[in-house]
Structures are given as C-alpha cells and as structure tokens.
Amino acid sequence: MHIAIILGITFLVILITVRVLRFFSDKIKFYAAGLDQKFAFSELGTLWKLAQLCDLQEPQSLFFSVPALSRCITHIIEQSQEEGTQDTPKVQEFLSKLYKYRTKIELESDQKKGLDSTKGLDKGQKLRIILPGKGLHESEIINSGRELVIKLPTQKGIIKVKGKEWENQDISVYLWRKGDANYVFDSHVLSSSVFNGQSALFIMHSDKLLRAQKRRSVRCECHVNAQLYIINEPIVNFSTVETNPGYRCILEDISEDGAMIRIGGKGVSNTQIKLQFELEDSFILMFGLIKAVEYNAEINQSRLHFECTHVEPTMKNFILSFVYKVLPEKQKEIFAALTETENDAKEMGDSPDEDGSESLNSNDGLNQEQKVNSILEENLKALNPDSDTKEETVDTSIEIPEAEILK
C-alpha cells in the first residue's frame, strides 16, 4: 500500500517536472545560450522580457543581431507612445538598459575578425559545394586535421558523383557560420576514402576565405534603355504610366529589387525615382531610391545604385524570367549556393537577411554591395579564369541629358 502511494507520488512529480520543463523549454534554451555567450543572468532576464514583448520567433538572435535588437527597441518605443507611457521612469530605465546592450553587441560585433582559415571550422558544419560541370552538392565536415574530411557530397540526398570522380578536382565551397556570415573558399579534392564508416572526401584547407553579411539578389548584366522620373509627391500612385518623356538612362544590370543605372552628370544619393522601360516587350514600372552613386568626372557620368521599393508582382515575374534566362549557368550555381547557405542559417536560428541591413549612408551601401560582388567575381574568375571583366562605356550614340537630380 505504502509502495503504491510512493510510486504514485513519484510518477506525479515526474509528470509535473516534465510538463514544467516542456513549458519552460524555450526559456531554458534561451538562458543556456545566453550564458554560453557570457551574458549576465540579470541581463538575460531583461533580454527574455524584450523577446516576449516583441514576439520574436528566434529570441536567441538578440545575442548577436544588432538589427533584431534595434527592431525590438523601436517596437517598445512605438508601443509606449501609443499607451502614453514613453516618458515614465519604468519605460525610460528599460530603454536605457536596451541601448546599453545594443552598444555592447555592436562593439563586440565590430571586434570580431571573422574566419581566417578553414581550420577554424567545426565538425558538423554544413557545406554547399560546386563541382564544375556537375552542379551544386551538399555535404558537411566530419573531421578537421591536416586536411578537411567531408561527407561524400550528395544532391537532394542522393550520391550523383562517385568518390573517384571527385579526386583531383577543384571545387568552390559555400557555408554559413553560425552567428557570423556567409563564407566562400576554393579547394582541391586530394582523395576519396572511408572515414569512421562513412564515404568521405579529403580536401585541402584554405586561408583565403571571402566573407559577406548578406546575399545579393539574382542580378544580370543588360543594356536596356529606360526613362527616369524624379518622385516629388508625398503619396505615390504606383499605377500611373508617364506619357511625357523622362530623363534617358541605361540599365546596366537588373534584378527584381534593383538596378545599376548609367546617366549623365553627377548623381545624388537618397533621391526617390521611378523607372519606366520595356523588357523583351513587357512594360515595367519600378519605384525606389538611389542608395549610392559612382561619379566619373572625366566623362561626366554617374552609375546609380538603385534599390527598388515597389514593383507589381506581374512585372516582378517578368524581370525574374528575364534574369534567369540571361544568367550564365555557372552564375546560377553560385546564387543557388548562397541561397542554400542562407537556408542553413535560418535552420540554425540566424537571420541572414537582416545582417548589415540597417540604415546605411550611400558609401556604406556601396561598400556592402562591393563586398558581395567580390565573392561573385572571384568565384566566376575561378570557374572561368580565361574571362576578363572589362567595364563597357555607355553607347555614345545615345544622348543622356543631365537630370534635376544630377548637379
């Protein structure tokens, strides 16, 4: 009788413990990750409260993501303004703590050197690998010693290229390092064998890694005549088609979220514009902002880095169709690899689309894009070493007048 009571009580305690642990599992994981990141217990209490108030799907992003923390601070300010509590001591004290944490994270982020060598990669690190002529594969690191040992790469879980076919091949490797960024490096497959019962490749380490915070959208070179209009109205009608001629310009490359525009004169950043043009007989309207300017004084022309903030879905699909049709196969593989590493990042709880996406001045925006472009250019050169990229000047037979924005 007593044994039955004891067993019943024990079972009840275990059941309650399991339910409590299940209920608090997210909080336990959050605190464990925070302590691992060297946050004080009192700081974690504040950050957990913030994550709950802002309904963050990935609360751990507050440990390393300045944009996530900034977004939450904005949420608190807007909420307190609506409730009329912004100037209360309680809200102001909470905001002071948050700004302090934001500064701490930003300083720590600035001090990070990133990854200098593949010897710093951990076991289990997911890899996306391009084998020229054989497409994009996936793998992961199973050991790191004199060489990197990786699982025999697969495509959608199936081995399409046997071990012997990988030997003595040059490959490009893409990865997302947790809490950090995208990395790309080139390597050489030394041999294929079995390691700890798994089919594996032995590849060379590399000290030359390219790092980028954010993947650029799929973009392709083009030579499209367009009309540029300056937007002065506070409220924009996205359906209005201009019948009067605008300022003639040339689109040198295009994606669904932006373009590189060449135009006469000196461009001015942070100017709202509208582009109107035809793409393979499809009419396109794009609205957005000039984020950065490259001015060439010798020829008095500017290249405008245009960020699109609005394009109708049908028109966006026309652009994507054009881009993917024109894009070389090798470059498609590079973009596919970067996309897959970002998917890996999301599985890890990182937010690749937010990194580096805070308010930037024109030069910061330009540098950010140049960093990402360097990855694409270096890898395209590696895949096609005989091709040289030469900047093509604007067709002089097309007159490009100076616009009001071009001072």
Describe this structure in words.
The protein is an alpha+beta fold. The chain has 3 domains: 2-111, no CATH class; 121-212, Electron Transport, Fmn-binding Protein, Chain A (Pnp Oxidase, Chain A); 215-407, predicted glycosyltransferase like domains (Thrombin, subunit H). 36% of the residues lie in helices and 27% in strands. It contains 9 helices and 13 strands. The protein has helices spanning 2-23, 25-36, 41-53, 66-83, 89-111, 163-166, 313-326, 329-348, 362-383; strands at 126-131, 135-144, 148-151, 170-176, 182-195, 198-203, 210-212, 220-230, 247-255, 258-264, 272-279, 282-296, 301-310. A 6-stranded antiparallel barrel has the order 1-2-3-6-5-4. The chain has a 6-stranded antiparallel barrel with strand order 8-9-10-13-12-11. Helix 2 packs across helix 3 (41-53). The radius of gyration is 26 Å and the shape is flat. The relative contact order is 0.10. Residues 354-407 have low confidence and may be disordered.
